[in-house]
Structure formats: C-alpha cells, structure tokens
Amino acid sequence: MVSKYLPEIYLFLTVFLLLLLLFLLKPALLPFFIASVLAYMSLPIFNFFQQITGRRRISALLTLFTLFLISLIGFFVVIPTVIAQVEGFINYLPTLINRLDSFFFSHFGKHWPIFHPLKLKNLADLLQEVYSKLGTIPLGSFLSKLFSGVFSVISIAINIVVVPFLTYYFLIDSKKIINIYISISPESIQKELEELLSRVHASLYSYLIGQLAVAIFVGTYIAIGLYFVGIKYPLLIGFVSGVLNMIPYVGFFSGLIPSLLLAIFDNGSLEAVLGVLTVFLTEVGLENLIYPLVMSRTTGVNPILILLFIFVGGYLGGFLGIVVAVPVAVILIPIFESFLKKKRGKSLDSGNNG
C-alpha cells in the first residue's frame, strides 16, 4: 500500500517543492536559502556557545559575530591573496606554455603539430583576455563584476543586512520550524516522519561538516606543503584543491597536475617533482585517516552518484544547481534507504506468509 511509504513520499515531495520554488523564485528566496545554509553549517558554533551561555539568543548573536570575523578574514586576507596569485599565474602562463611547447617539440620533433590540436599559445591568450575582462585586481571591482547581472548594488546592500537577520532567526527558531513542519503533516505519519527527519539530518550534517573540515585540511596542507617544496602559487593551488575536494577525484588532480607542471617546467628539478608527489601522496593518506574522525562511515556517498547529481544540477540550475546538488543527494539517500527497507520487509513478510 502507498500509505506505508507516505513519510518518505511526503519528505521527498517537500524537498522537490523547495528546490522548485528556489529556482523559480531565486531572486526572492536566495537570501533565505543563504541564511538557512549559514545557520545549518554554523550549528557546531551555536551549540558550543549555547553550552556556555545556556541562552539561544545570546548564542545566536555570538555565532553571527564569529561568522562576521571569519568573513573579514576571508574577504581581506584569503581572497585578495588568492586573487593576487591568480593574476601572477595568468601573467606567468605564457612562459609556462612556451616551456611546455619547447619540451614537446624536442621530444616529438616535426610530429608535434599532429599532437598540438589545442593550440596552447592561443589558450594562454584566451585566458589572458578572459582575465582582462574582470578588470583590475582590487577586490571591490572584482566582486562587483562577479555579481553584475545577478544582484544590483542596492540588493547586495539589502542582503548584507537581511541575511544575518534571517540567519539569527533560523538559529533560534530551527526547532520550532521543524515542529511546525511535522505538525502540518498527516497525524498518522508524524512520529515516523520525525524519525526520518532525524536520520536525514544526521546524514546531511555529518557529511557537510565532515567535507568542510576535510576541505580546509586539504587546502591548508597542500598550500603549506607546496610552499616548503618551493612551488609557485601554493595558496592558489591549495585553495582550488580544497574547494574542489567535495567533487570526487577533481580536487586531488586539480592540485596535482599544475603542481607537477610547475615542478618540471619552472623548478626543473627532480627534488621538486618528488616533493610535489610526497605532498599529495601524504595528503591522501592523512585524509583517509581524518575522514573517520570527522565523518560517520554511514554517510558515505558513491562518487558516481555525486558526479551524476553535480552534472544534472549544473545542467538544470547552473551554478546554483551545482551548489545544491551534493546536499540534495545526501538528503535523498536516507529517504531512499528507508523506502527500500520497508519494501524488503514487505517482501520478507510476503515470503513468510507464502
């Protein structure tokens, strides 16, 4: 009977409806989405302050202040440094391309043009042209161009005020929101729906917090390791590897490949190549040790499934679709597992009755 799976259907339709509304009413709902994500991701900070103060409102204010300090560090220390390294990398790219070209020509000789379909020099020119479109390096100019066509200056100013305000209320009223959601569901499924929500929360919370912790570790470790090896642009490579670490295999190779190219064609020494390999191989080993500490083994998601959701999300919703793809996959897995568990239980009951 369909009623047996009503909690799973109810929660699945809720997720689907929320996603549909987010993409259809993106300008209006995006501040609520950003605030809810900030509130959810900052729950460890909020819970820490609540244990100390015992008061939700004060804990929420302290959490917002902590997020504000983290934002200041990001906008005035990390991001400008990364942008400066991007500029340096773009300026250095023609030199690197020429060295690559000379290397392949020396090995393939007259046959190199056959294996040269991408026109690497043209690629360098293209990247320089794209970068020049971003304007000069000051952060304000970069951000204003980045958000042009998405938000007006006025809407950005409004969101700077609205998002923290909404985050504050999401933090202090999160339990009330969940209780209201459960209370408006059919009474017959409320208890089971609450248990299913608890499993979804455990899966999503463990996965996202674990991924964030691992991403910070990966980015920091690679940046520091490459710096001591003597590779150019260590912070840029570490930053990209950390950000892309959530996508299976992409984070590792997005850092390893440029690091090896720089080690070979810039440093030009075997020691640099061995140093890069040591940094990335030890990073993989340490990451495998850290994963069980920061993330439950039960929240593992198949890499192919993550890639599928990312590609589908990007196709359907652009950048926002890519952002929500992995969390949606992690949310749907406990729902699907609960459905399968009931289905198998029903099959076993039918077999026993037979």
What does this structure look like?
- The chain is globular, with a radius of gyration of 24 Å.
- The chain has helices at residues 6-24, 26-41, 43-53, 56-108, 120-133, 139-146, 153-183, 190-229, 234-243, 250-267, 270-294, 303-353.
- Helices cover 84% and strands 0% of the residues.
- The protein is built from 12 helices and no strands.
- 19% of the residues are buried.
- It is an all-alpha fold and 354 residues long.
- Helix 1 (6-24) packs across helix 8 (190-229), helix 4 (56-108) packs antiparallel against helix 5 and helix 4 packs across helix 7 (153-183).
Provide the descriptors you would attach to this structure in a database record:
354 residues, mainly alpha, globular
Average pLDDT number: 78
Query: Segments where pLDDT lies below 50 for 5+ residues?
Result: 114-118, 134-140, 145-151, 347-351
Shape: globular
Q: Could you give the distance between the termini?
A: 18 Å
- Rg, nearest Å: 24 Å
Q: What is the string of SSEs from the N terminus onward?
A: HHHHHHHHHHHH
Total of helices: 12
Largest sheet: none
- In terms of structural class, how would the helical and strand content be classed? mainly alpha
Strand content: under 5%
Multimer state: single chain
Estimate the helix proportion, in percent. Answer: over 70%
> Total number of β-strand segments?
0
